[in-house]
Amino acid sequence: MEAVILAAGKSTRMKSKTSKIFHNICGKPIIFYIVKALKRYKIHIVSNEEAKNTLKKMFPKAEIHIQEVQKGTADALSKAINHINSDAFAVVNGDMPLIDSNDFETGFNLLKANKLDCLILTTFLENPQGYGRIVKDGSGLQIIEEKDASNTIKRIKEVNSGIYIFDTKAALKALPKIEKNEKTGEYYLTDIIKFLNKVDTLNIKSENMLGVNTRRQLSEARKIIQQRIIDNFENVTFIDPENTYINYGVEIGEDTIIYPNVHLRNKTRIGRECIIENGNIIEKSIVKDNVHIKPYCVIEESIIYDNCEIGPFAHLRPMSELKSCVRIGNFVETKKVKIGEGTKASHLTYLGDAVIGENVNVGCGTITCNYDGYQKNETIIGDRVFIGSDVQLVAPVKVGDDALVAAGTTVTKDVEPSALAISRVPQTNKQGWAKKYRDAIEKRVKEKKKT
Ligand code: UD1
Ligand code: CA
Fold it and tell me: Is 131 in the pocket of ligand 1 (CB under 6 A)?
């Protein structure tokens, strides 16, 4: 069996520079979901010239046919129909990301069993506005487009889904007979019914046929796809699934708990028994088991091993690798850094271009000064090092195992293992100095007020 996706339209109602088939839903373009649902069939896509190359790259197995001028859905099908080699084929609009592959299977079976020329998939809508209406009267079946419908017809709630199953021979004969619609100058595929003999309808769930013509419908489709993705995770707790954003292809392990407003993007993998609290944005990252990510962290292209604790308000930039039991606290930024097991950087720190050993304590306000205005330089810290608060490590620099860096030190030279590095101006306390200073200022202020 084969399927033709009509996707050459101008997307006028979308009011976008980008064709609607490429608008994103949960990390994938609309057209991706359609091709996925039809993966059992040989796929033809009718495209315009601009979309052609992108589609070829995205779906190398599909046959792309070009409709140069957009003269309607019947004209679009005419670009593909001569390339169909099967007895029957499906046609589907390129703006329907919610289609269900089972509807197509049922459709093909019915077409064969009842020897039909065409099976139209329809549904009943409370608000049928914008859709072609299914008119069934004594003279048979017709589809009347909204633009051409009388008020009586507009009240009909059964609508054309935009999915059709055709007998190939019958469609080949009927398609060229379709005439131009006088009002719009387009050739409507829906008019093919007039030139076919045995036509029937199959009712499908209305959710499966939502067409994305406008931004509003794009957001409606997103909600449903998001719900479907989340419903697939039967062993994961979502505190508030309506306000959780999980992209297509994300993996989450058993007994993980996802709080509201979490965004998991681009192939992120979360392990088991993790807690991902509110507002976290995680993309292209791997999080192993039993990791606790406190609220409002941004994590990109990073790997976090078991039992780590991150955040709140941490920023893990690309190539951060945290071994087991690492603790990254609030307002800590990491980038291109390997952090050994059990190491802690609990507050207000920047760790970039660094290799840090196991069980290191990184004090509050530590900064790896990795950039000299020309290039990035590396900081290497051994195991069990203790770095006091407010330390600057001016890279390239190494601190050996078991060394101690005193608070306030600017490390510019390598530190030997087990050594103490300290760079501080010796402190002097000037007795009575503060009082004298305040008195002088207060006197000056008083004199100013008098004048
Ligand atoms: C179409 C149906 C309508 C149905 C609705 C369901 C027609 C005439 N009407 O209306 O009965 O209820 O879908 O969603 O078919 N396209 C081309 N080339 C063209 C014109 C359109 O490839 O010249 C493609 C579009 O890219 C789109 C699809 O065909 O993916 C349908 O076109 P669209 O303009 O969205 O049709 P609707 O007005 O939604
Ligand atoms: Ca449409």
Answer: yes
By the CB criterion, residues less than 5 angstroms from ion ligand 2 are 95, 211, 213
Domain regions of the chain by residue span = 2-209, 215-421
Cα(211) to centroid of ligand 2, in Å?
A: 5
Indicate which ligand has the atom closest to the C-alpha of 189. Answer: 1
Catalytic residue status for 292: no
**Distance between CA atoms of residues 11 and 20, nearest Å:** 6
Cβ of 95 closer than 6 Å to ligand 1, yes or no, is: yes
Which residue ranges of the chain lie beneath pLDDT 50? none
Superfamily of domain 2-209: Spore Coat Polysaccharide Biosynthesis Protein SpsA; Chain A (3.90.550.10)
What's the pLDDT tens digit per position in 336-384? Answer: 999 999 999 999 999 999 999 999 999 999 999 999 999 999 999 999 9
CATH superfamily of 215-421: Hexapeptide repeat proteins (2.160.10.10)
